[in-house]
Amino acid sequence: MPAAMSDLFSASTTLEQISIIDGELAFAHQFYSSEIARELYTSLLAETPWRQDLIAVWGKTYLQPRLTAWYGDVASSYNYSGIALAPQPWTDTLLKIKSQVEALTLNRYNSVLLNLYRDQQDSVGWHSDNEPELGHKPAIASVSVGESRIFKLRHKSKPEQKIRNIELNSGSILLMAGSLQQHWEHAVLKETRPHQPRINLTFRNIQN
User: Fold this and answer.
1) How far apart are alpha carbons 134 and 204 in whole angstroms?
2) How far apart are CA 184 and CA 94, in angstroms?
3) What is the rounded CA–CA span in Å between residue 157 and residue 116?
4) Is the distance from CB of 40 to CB of 5 less than 8 angstroms?
């Protein structure tokens, strides 16, 4: 980690609870300042060995519409949508972010999935993070740097609940917890307006 980034590496904020049924949701617009977020984006973009996996959707396989990387403790292997991920060892940058995310959310994480959305065509479809390895009521903390994108939530069984839209700006953090993954799906959908790249880090605790 460059010395300049080390000097900038500090986060001071509180999470604001978002009112939602059947789960817990909290958000902070500025977990990192815009200057720190720019430093993080540049560092993560350059040092991460990005990959594009084949993903299984309704019995068919496609190239994932974004690039990813998986880091974590030795025993934090993860499987989703036909993809088996073995963790790469933590970098100094990721360990620093992890410690600050843990301090804010009061949860422990042993892994992180990095997603690189290269432009407005990169996306993640409607899904829940409800794999058995994540446990019954997982806490997942999502940090965003780079371009802003719209994070959408919809209830699985109560269509009268309006779709929630949250703008995940650079430097923001979103915490999903409680029974949210049981009852809600979320997505970052393709957009028509041109977008610059965005990096998203979702910290998780794998229970193998």
Assistant:
1) 7
2) 28
3) 31
4) yes
Q: Up-side HSE of residue 161: CA atoms within 13 Å toward CB?
A: 16
Statement: residue 6 has pLDDT above 60? no
Write out the H or E segment, with its range, that includes residue 82: none
Mean pLDDT of the chain: 92
**Residue 47: alpha-carbon gap to chain centroid:** 18
The answer to whether residues 114 and 69 touch, using CB atoms and an 8 Å cutoff, is yes
Angle, vertex CA 200, rays to CA 194 and CA 7, nearest 5: 110
The gap between the terminal CA atoms of the chain, to the nearest Å, is 31
**Beta strand 111-117 with 149-155: parallel, antiparallel or unpaired?**
unpaired
**Token pair 């994108």 is at which residue?**
149
Q: Pull the structure tokens for residue 91.
A: 């970098």
